[in-house]
Amino acid sequence: MVVRVQEAAFDLGGVVQDFAEAQTEAGAVVNFTGIVRNTPAGDLDRMEIEHYPGMTQSALAGIEAKAVKRWNLKDSLIIHRYGTLRTGDMIMMVATAAPHRVDAFEAAQYLMDYLKSRAPFWKKEFTLDGAEWVDAKDADEDALSKW
Question: Does the global pTM surpass 0.90?
Answer without folding.
Answer: yes
